[in-house]
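Record type: monomer structure entry
Structure origin: computed from sequence
Chain ID: A
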Amino acid sequence: MKTAYVAATAACLLSACASSQAITGTDGREEHLINCPGLALSWKECSRKAEEKCGGKGYKVVDRVKDADLVSTIPGQFTTAAQARVRWVKIRCGGSKP
């Protein structure tokens, strides 16, 4: 099981995939939190993942964090800016495409 997890993680990193998680919005409706970290991914990848999650129904951006570099006070936690690059968007399906 651990080997499968490591292999899947490595494949994702090498293919530059965005991740998503279904969450409940403040009004109780389903939203998706999409993460596109590092230098290998861009906002375009976040948009592709949003379109994939919404199946062509369009989506509305509820919130997002623009490109930001994290700063760590723990030595060795982030060794390059690419590892610390943060980019995520929260969407709700069914709205107009951005």
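Annotation 1: DSSP finds three helices and four strands in the chain.
Annotation 2: Confidence is low (pLDDT under 50) at residues 4-15.
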